Amino acid sequence: MTSASVEGSTTDPVPGAVGPTRRRLPTQARSRERVERILDAAAQLVVADGVEGLTTRSIAETAGLPVASLYQYFADKEAVLLALCERDMAEMDEQVAEDLAAAGELTMAGLVETSMRAFVKVYHRRPAFMQIWMRGRTNTAVYDYGRHHNKRITENLLAYAADLGLIDQGGYSDAELTAIGELAVELGDRAFQLAFERDPHGDEFLIDEAIDLVAGYLQKVTAR
């Protein structure tokens, strides 16, 4: 799976998304540390007060920085939220890759469960993410970045499953197989939103059901 850096240097362009929202790309250690402080402060405030109560002033104050310093890196609070999503999704990609590498021999159901539980691990470490993702849909850049990220997940996991011989394409065309993969990822995404809607740790029953739902749907293209 691919990653997106907080500095923006490795972030893939998002088709149809708003252009870069950060005014300055940090290259020095001090600048990178300031950006992390800003993102950590924003995440802390989202968990405490929700997305709606977030302001650039409150972020800067919590980070212990002047507001002017925040504006060196971010145009507004929406840009901060986008950067938080980029950072957290990159961490999810890394966790999935790490867990799949350690999983040993996999079936399709095992691939689904390992990948989805890797996301849950990051949701637990980054509790602000799900609040931003559920309630930040008015941020076009966040929404578009999330959709693009889901497409990348689909491409990477389908390729991984094919390499392992887990896919029986049957009578489906490549385009249809991709559509099935994208729908599976979207189903998992929406089901996890329900699981984490009222409980930041996630409803364990709904998490298990979400994994079963996606694995069951993919049985139509599963070789083993």
Give an overview of the whole structure:
The protein is mainly alpha-helical. It has 2 domains: 54 residues, Homeodomain-like (Arc Repressor Mutant, subunit A, Orthogonal Bundle), CATH 1.10.10; 140 residues, Tetracycline Repressor, domain 2 (Orthogonal Bundle). It has 9 helices and no strands. Helix 7 packs across helix 8. The longest helix has 25 residues. It is elongated. It starts with 28 loop residues before the first helix and ends in a 7-residue tail after the last helix. The N terminus is likely disordered. This is HTH tetR-type domain-containing protein. InterPro entries: Homeodomain-like_sf, HTH-type_TetR-like_transc_reg, HTH_TetR, TetR_C_22. Keywords: DNA-binding, Transcription, Transcription regulation.
The level 1 CATH classification of the largest domain is Mainly Alpha
Q: How many structural domains does the protein architecture include?
A: 2
At the fourth level of CATH, the homologous superfamily of the largest domain is Tetracycline Repressor, domain 2
Oligomer: single chain
The low-confidence runs, each spanning 5 or more residues with pLDDT under 50, are 1-23
> Quick check: average pLDDT?
87
Largest sheet geometry: none
Terminal CA distance reads 22 Å
What fraction of residues sit in β-strands?
A: under 5%
Total strands: the figure is: 0
